[in-house]
């Protein structure tokens, strides 16, 4: 079973790096900026890219939450200037973090 898990992780990594580039250490702002925003949780890079494309040029900042933090390290995703930062803490407090995410009107 261990070999299957390892192979699955290798395939996932290969797919992600072929599509989004090799991740590099990246400083990620914590907290929020004033303005409209979307908080993205989960772990699907394809969904993140779709959200970034759909919000491009619309004055909406995109933040990661939880397991999405590593997406900031991929070069293809970093090119979006409105992909701003990470909000909240991991673990048991994650549902409280997203519930308290700032909602601001423009």
Compact description:
This protein has 106 residues and is an alpha/beta fold.
Q: Any key phrases for this structure?
A:
alpha/beta, 106 residues, single chain, 13% strand, 3 strands, 3-stranded parallel sheet, globular
Q: What is the radius of gyration?
A: 15 Å
Q: Count the DSSP helices.
A: 4
Query: Strand order within the widest sheet?
Result: 1-2-3
Global structural class:
alpha/beta
- Give the low-pLDDT segments: none
Described by the principal axes of the CA atoms, the overall outline is: globular
Estimate what percentage of residues fall within beta strands: 5-15%
Counted beta strands: 3
Secondary-structure element order, N to C: HEHEHEH
Helix content: 25-40%
Mean pLDDT: 88
Query: Describe the biggest sheet?
Result: 3 strands, parallel
Structure description:
The chain is of the alpha/beta class and 106 residues long. 38% of the residues lie in helices and 13% in strands. It contains four helices and three strands. The chain has helices at 2-20, 45-55, 75-78, 94-99; strands spanning 36-40, 60-64, 83-86. It has a three-stranded parallel sheet with strand order 1-2-3, with helices on one face. Helix 3 (75-78) links the parallel strand 2 (60-64) and strand 3. The longest helix is centred in the N-terminal third of the chain and has 19 residues, at 2-20. It is globular, with a radius of gyration of 15 Å. The model has no long low-confidence stretch (mean pLDDT 88).
How do the strands and helices of this protein lay out in sequence?
Elements: H1 2-20, E1 36-40, H2 45-55, E2 60-64, H3 75-78, E3 83-86, H4 94-99
Parallel strand pairs: 1-2, 2-3
